Amino acid sequence: MNLFWNLLKRFFFGMMFGSLIYVVTGLYSRSYGMSDRMVFLLASGLIGLVSIVFKSEKIGFVFQLAIHGILTYIIIIALNRLITHDLDFWNPYVFSVFTIEFILIYAITCTISMVIFHRSTKEINNEIMNRKKQKNK
To answer: What is the pTM of this model?
Structure first.
């Protein structure tokens, strides 16, 4: 049961993050229909589910990033194929530009996530140290 709630939480967190990205980027692009928005939310939720790979202690962080990145790439390709019917995605130029943009966006997102994680971990550790100091007094 715990696994179910963990997966559901990740799915909804992915949808929340995807919604934020949609709002920010959707302001500057063409408007999509309701079904396209639902596909976008579903894809965002799936990316959130894929983040379960970071819970594994058996594989290293770089390998986790690689697995998450590849699965996210596949989900985004599927999303683009479903939403943008007129895009010749398999054109070598379009495909290479998309891939480079994906790698850059993924690297920026991962960097921001790692900085936030590092800061929150540091704050938690500092709070624990402060409590230990107060307890020892």
So the answer is: 0.76
